Amino acid sequence: MADDGLLLNFELGDVPLTSQVKFKGGRWRDRVRAQKTVNKDHQVAAPTDDDEADRPTKRPRTDDDVPGRRFKVAKANNANDKPPSYAMKTGQISSGLFTSNPAAVSAFNDHKDEETEPAQPSNAPLTDEAENFLALGLSRRVAQHLATKLEMKAPTAIQKSTIPLLIKEDHDAFLQAETGSGKTLAYLLPIIHRIMALSLNKDGTSKDIQVHRNSGLFAIILAPTRELCKQIALVAEKVLRCTPWLVCTTVIGGESKKSEKARIRKGVNILIATPGRLTDHLDNTKVLDVGTVRWLVLDEGDRMMEMGFEDDIRTIIGKTREVTLLKQNSEGVVLDGVLPTRRVTVLCSATMKMNVQKLGEISLEDAAHITASKSELDKDSETGNDAAFSAPAQLKQQCIITPAKLRLVTLTALLKSTFARRGTVFKAIIFISCADSVDYHFSLLKSTTTPEIPAPTPDTPYTPPEKPNPDTETTVALASYITSPANPKVALHKLHGSLAQPVRTATLNAFTVCKEPAVLITTDISSRGLDVPAVDLVVEYDPAFSISDHVHRIGRTARAGRAGRAVLFLLPGSEEGYTSLLGIANPVAPQLYESVLQKGLAAAVNLPSADSSAESEKQTWSTRAEALQLHFEQRLLATPPGGGSADRGLKSKGAKGNKGRDIKAQDNPLLDAARQAFRSHIRAYATHVRDERGFFDITRLHLGHMAKSFGLREAPGGIGGGVARQTHRAPAQKGVMGKPAATSRQSGGGKVGKGGAGDKDDDGLGVVDETAARRMREKMMGVMNAASEFNIG
Q1: Can you say whether the dihedral through the CA atoms of 153, 159, 165, 166 is positive or negative?
Q2: CA of 679: how far to CAs of 383, 434, 706, 777, in Å?
Q3: pLDDT of 392-426, one tens digit each?
Q4: Which is it for strands 476-478 and 491-495: parallel, antiparallel or unpaired?
Q5: Do both 569 and 645 map to the same domain?
Q6: Whose C-alpha in 220, 269, 329, 740 is 20 to 30 A from the C-alpha of 234?
Q7: How many other CB atoms are found less than 10 A from the CB of residue 620?
Q8: β pairing state of 22-24 and 173-176
Q9: Is 114 domain-assigned?
Q10: What CATH number does residue 492 fall under?
Q11: What residues contact residue 629 under an 8 Å CB cut-off, 6+ apart?
């Protein structure tokens, strides 16, 4: 072939030839960063004529000089060697917990441990010896029963103000008092006293005609949740033990309507119900006669309005008022003169929100506003601050400012330090935003080993273990990670609205009667009215959706004069301003996460797995925190022995958002639970009330960092259109909400900014579509209103 005269001249220069570096395995982001680092190492700047002779040769960077490198670069020995292959050990790597975290803006107090004079309890029983239940007008029979059987010798301030008025007057009443102040007995005792008066003379002797369970229904008590109805019924039954001829019962959702009708047919004097189920019985149960009803009590009125029970309450009030009030029952017992001559409505609430005022307009007529004292009423009307009025004075509130990546290890350290000494804290409640997250944290923190049965000895013969309750088989377990030599056993419980009613009742009862240190992981279903004894700590791991919910959450501790502590988890930045809305009566002391980690991780954590030698060698709290986080992540990535065989080949929930890169979540149920909990948590975060959305802005969440708090290496997809980043070449996929879901590249982690070049994350990804975020909030608010008891997920 003839030469075409084309000459090629390649100038190679003096730069030595280097083999091409190629990385395999691991995450795409890690490979890109490693490739950039290697390319930078291999670049050699050409010297200029001016400084070629004077400047010394630059020493090439070695592997040891590269900060944060997680793998070594193998070098070729000669030109004939093949380019090396680089496998990333993702199973042994955890990104730094203490790097790239946003800075806190709060001014932290350096003298947190200084002992201050404890505040005087604001909801404790009165100490004046002259103040007793007999002096308030109750019968001697009831007063002696309270003092001897129930060990209640003195009333609280709200009981002192309420009981004489409801005994002597027939006016409607609005009871407003802080949580744990005894509002339940404040309206129960006058009702029971006046019903008992139908059977007793003034001197305490019995009348010829005695009222019994078939004498008529005299009082209806409405409560928003089934758990609160059960608790009110339990309190009423304890008081009614001095009057065995009177009966109370409950009609709530989740139970057999046939058995409820049977109880109503047998006869009941006090009926405790949820609004929806009572409306059903008023429409369909003919034996339910409200002609003798004298009292209608609306307990936790603000919560019932928030849950959408306004129409049911209107129906109940209308049906009871349209029935003619009977002056005597079917047995000829005269009711007027002893019982009220009109139907009395009692509304109870810890706050004076707008929905409570609306409910008062619907139900109350010429009502008396009753508070603990006149001074507190004046103070509340001047400040207009419901939260300040409703929080007990002896309650200590703290907030831990912790970055998203450190939330899980900080919670573990807090619980570990809480149960480090025996007798300091007996029971704790952890509030989480959604049911999926409750399920995941319960599965993560519970023990995976079966307790060993000690061998029998002549002194201690063998005793068979107690038969477990089938209703609590999946909701009660022994805890791991948070135990200590002082408390080797800590009982872990979970409770949310998606559980069956028998399971909910049995779990709450198990937590109430538990004789060992116990932790309850729950949603807002447990925030209203529940009175569990010996609760010393309340942890708001996820902030409440509104200030009123926060007040009721922290009201589960510091009840009836007991001391208590409430801890709120907040992210650094805008969320720190949320504390300004919580009232001034109990200032919230900010605390940095480092102090919690130092205290909780001063000793090694008892890991549930047998191989914990790597963690035990760590000596500092920071290395223990990193080892603990790595342990959580490895548990999610590991495949359980024989796990997933029944579900092999099935897609995990929400797997479309991770199409092509799902790590066989069906083989590890804990991984699937973590991903679903993360999705539900992000959706729940978008449902904060409008006034607080400036502090809890979903567009400011760093999804990758938040995923670390669930033990995930990266944020899963399938969250919804409100969080998906809009890139110009991203393929459209359907998410769980029917909107374009986040792609695998989009959901890999990064801050969700508001717009502009300065708001892009480290990977150069785009920003969130604000319109889509607004649409997601509107849709999620509809989900919240329709969900049972704000149970998202």
Answers
A1: negative
A2: 39, 10, 11, 14
A3: 777 888 999 999 999 999 999 999 999 988 876 78
A4: antiparallel
A5: no
A6: 329
A7: 11
A8: unpaired
A9: no
A10: 3.40.50.300
A11: 94, 97, 405, 408, 409, 708, 711
